[in-house]
């Protein structure tokens, strides 16, 4: 199911925001980021927004996802760029305000045990394949 992510605003006084979910539930969560934009009060300066996460060695990694400037790029559509929580957004440069919005997607895990209905077993599939004939010389 999709839930509207009300978004967050990054400013000179609030430079980061972390989106977290309850890890106790048995669902997969994604944050689909749709838009990053400057809002009222923004100066004509470069505002760089980074996504901060951790790699497999638990080291922090920051990746810039938007560089906004009022006079030339006040808004950026990210086409529901999917991130897996927890994820932190950080205003790496500029004073904002920068607004981020998107969707919180929850995918409920289905029971892992499933039955094969009318599917053919592997043995039956192999029997239906045509035999391989040697190439003619």
Architecture overview:
The chain is mainly β and 137 residues long. Helix content is 5%, strand content 50%. The chain has one helix at 122-128, and strands at 2-10, 16-19, 27-38, 47-54, 60-68, 75-83, 87-93, 98-108. A four-stranded antiparallel β-sheet has the order 1-8-3-6, with no helix packed on it. It has a four-stranded antiparallel β-sheet with strand order 2-7-4-5, with no helix packed on it.
Task: Give a brief outline of the structure.
With 137 residues, the chain is mainly beta. 5% of the residues lie in helices and 50% in strands. It starts with a strand and ends in a 9-residue tail after the last helix.
Key traits:
single chain, four-stranded antiparallel beta sheet, 1 helix, 50% strand
List the topology elements.
Layout: E1 2-10, E2 16-19, E3 27-38, E4 47-54, E5 60-68, E6 75-83, E7 87-93, E8 98-108, H1 122-128
Antiparallel strand pairs: 1-8, 2-7, 3-6, 3-8, 4-5, 4-7
Main β-sheet description = 4 strands, antiparallel
Helix-and-strand structural type: mainly beta
Along the chain, the helix and strand elements come as EEEEEEEEH
Helix content: under 10%
Specify the number of helices. Answer: 1
Radius of gyration: 23 Å
User: How are the strands of the biggest sheet laid out side by side?
Assistant: 1-8-3-6
Query: In whole angstroms, how far apart are the ends?
Result: 59 Å
Mean pLDDT: 82
Counting DSSP E segments of at least 2 residues, the number of strands comes to 8
